Amino acid sequence: QKEVEQNSGPLSVPEGAIASLNCTYSDRGSQSFFWYRQYSGKSPELIMSIYSNGDKEDGRFTAQLNKASQYVSLLIRDSQPSDSATYLCAVNPPGGKLIFGQGTELSVKP
Amino acid sequence: KAGVTQTPRYLIKTRGQQVTLSCSPISGHRSVSWYQQTPGQGLQFLFEYFSETQRNKGNFPGRFSGRQFSNSRSEMNVSTLELGDSALYLCASSLDGGTYGYTFGSGTRLTVV
Question: What is the overall mean pLDDT for chain A?
């Protein structure tokens, strides 16, 4: 079992729709969870962090964490073509490193 | 506030050669991590340094090594290059090793021919 798993996609949504990205992790001791966005040819950029169970909202982005189910998700409301990118889930297990999922490619069609 | 700086941006090397990549973290950040990114494998963790000590190491052969200097700058070395080492190498810095996330540099694109 991979440490961090994501649906590889690609995920295609129409402009204005909600995009839902999912991630599961294996280490129950993990305490910090992140979503990164990576445009083609660029380096990953941190867009959301979440540390406790529940929802965290930042503008059009909502991160959700369920530690009992070892599940993290990212919702993007009112998706825009500029949101088209690869979204990487990252988990910080005990010991001081970040483990990344394979990423989900999102395409927002005008 | 300057970001994470990686040099060089691009490198072309021949099989069997060695290469050294450099990373300067954000001022005040003491943790530097290195990742290899390829289309097939995604972001693979290489190692993490904190205050000049290697704290974590990924599942890469001993040809991959690194170090961190007292000013937190870090270097990564790959010896006896193989074609499969062609990848984007990303450096990321953080205050404490990932609790609050990493900030990535622009990466070094290494091509081995």
Answer: 94
- CA angle B58/B62/B67 to nearest 5° reads 75
- Residue A76 predicted with pLDDT over 80: yes
Write out residues in chain B with pLDDT < 50, as ranges: none
Chain A closest-CA separation from residue B5 CA (Å)? 12
Would you state the pLDDT for residue B41?
83
Three-state secondary structure call for residue A69: coil
Q: How far is CA A15 from the centre of its chain?
A: 19
Q: What CA–CA distance (Å, rounded) separates A97 from B56?
A: 7
A96–B102 CB contact, under 8 Å: no
Query: How high is the pLDDT of residue B1?
Result: 64
Measured between alpha carbons, how far is A102 from B44 in angstroms, rounded to an integer? Answer: 9
**The pair of three-digit structure tokens given for residue B60, joined into one six-digit string:** 């890469």
Q: Alpha-carbon distance A108 to B18, whole Å?
A: 42
- Residue located via tokens 């990576």: A38
Q: What is the pLDDT of residue B42?
A: 87
Nearest to B98 among A43, A88, A92 (CB): A92
